Amino acid sequence: MNLKSHFFLDNRQRSGILLLVLILVASWGVYFLITPDTSYKSEALTNEELQVFEARIDSLRRIKLAASQPKIFPFNPNFITDYKGYTLGMSLAEIDKLLRFREKDQWINSAEDFQNVTGVSDSLLQTISPYFKFPEWVTNSKPKASKFSFASAEEKPKSDLNKADFASFTQIEGLDEAIAKRVLSYRKRLGGFLEDNQLYDIYGISKSQVYAIKDRFTVQSKPEIKLIDVNSANASDLSTVPFITFEIARDIIDYRVLHEGINNLDELLKIDGISAYKLERIKLYLSSNQN
């Protein structure tokens, strides 16, 4: 049997075989491209599994949110600063009420007092009141002991703030030489303090340092000053008043001319740059002949 003759092909036959092979290869390629991989099985999540997955995501979000919130430590609400009040969620008006209350040397001794003074909501009070930390004599007060302590505090004499010298200020705990110099410099600039709360206007002084000074000193001898008539003073005279710059003085004069006089000093709140806090200081040096 001659096997060689079976493998002898002419050009047409070889071309046909080659074409057949190409068709088979192309068919296999298409098959593998369009046929999904059965080794990978995609299973749709059930509603129960989806809810569990969403719950886990929500839990992680809450953990992240809790970690980003500032941690609250026990604190005395009498010494809340502007920034502290902001981080606690208090509004500017509520913080201002607290600061004005403390400027009068009055104290908050309970969560109820805090809400009455500031007007915070019940929900906010419930959140922050567990962190209130009052002195021992407030939380464990005894009638006899507290009466004695208040009597002692009232009987303790205070010195004149306008006569205190550098040595007197540096003896106060928590008051360094730099602040003592600023107190003396500001007092000289004013010609003397008219009220204790003007200490808050000193640059760089903290509320705790003001409280420490006020515990030992108070204004006893007020300087003699002549009130400036807001309806007749020029810009130069007005600008000598604390918190009134020359630009604000010009605005006051413009307002005065436009409204044909200022009937009440509270109208100055309408002037840009004069806040309620500044107006309390300005009133010490101004008057209105319309009053």
From TrEMBL:
Q: Name one GO biological process term.
A: protein secretion by the type II secretion system
Gene Ontology molecular function, alphabetical:
DNA binding
What are the protein's UniProt keywords?
DNA-binding, Membrane, Transmembrane, Transmembrane helix
One Pfam family, short name: HHH_3
The question of whether Disulfide bond is a record keyword is answered with: no
Listed under GO cellular component are: type II protein secretion system complex
- The reply to whether DNA-binding figures as a keyword in the UniProt entry is yes
Which spans are transmembrane here? 16-34
Say which domain of life the source belongs to: Bacteria
Q: Which PANTHER family match?
A: ENDONUCLEASE/EXONUCLEASE/PHOSPHATASE FAMILY DOMAIN-CONTAINING PROTEIN 1, ENDONUCLEASE_EXONUCLEASE_PHOSPHATASE FAMILY DOMAIN-CONTAINING PROTEIN 1
Protein name from the UniProt record = DNA uptake protein ComE-like DNA-binding protein
